[in-house]
Amino acid sequence: MATGPLRFRTPHIEELPTTGSRQAPGFAWVAVSGAQDDPAKNWGTSNRKRARASLGGPTDQQREALSARQQREVERKIRDLNSDNSKNAAELPIPKKEGGAGASTVARAGKTPNTKKILGSGKTFAHYLDDEEAEIARTGRRDVDVEAPTGAQRPSKTPLARRKTREESSMSGSPAPITPVAPPALPRISQALSFGETTTLDAEEEGDDAVPPLPSSAEMEALLNAPPLTYSQARSAPPTPGAPPPRRFCETCGYWGRVKCMKCGAMTCSVSCKEEHDQSKCLKMYA
Amino acid sequence: MARQKSLPSAPEASGHLADKTLIIDNGAHTLKAGLATHLDDTPPNLDSCHIIPNVIARSQRDKRTYIGPEYSDCLDFGELAYRRPVEKGFIVHWEAEKAVWERSFLHKDDAVVKCDPEETSLILTEAPNAPVALQRNADEMVFEEFGFAGYYRTIAPTLNAYAPSPFPSTATSVSGVPLECLLIIDVGHSHTTVTPLHHGRPFQHAIKRLEIGGKTLTNQMKLLISRTFDVHREDHIVSEIKEDVCFVSQDFNADLERVWRGGRYDPRAVDASLLVDYVLPDYETIKRGYARPHDPAVKLRDIMLGIGTEGGRREHVLTIANERFVVPELLFSPADIGMRQAGLAGMVLQSIDALPAGFRQAYLANILVVGGTSKLPGFVQRLESELRSLVDVDEVVRVARAEEPAKNVWLGGAGMAKSADLMRSLIVTRQEYAEHGDGWARRVFAGKARR
Question: What keywords is this UniProt entry annotated with (chain B) (predicted)?
Answer without folding.
Answer: Cytoplasm
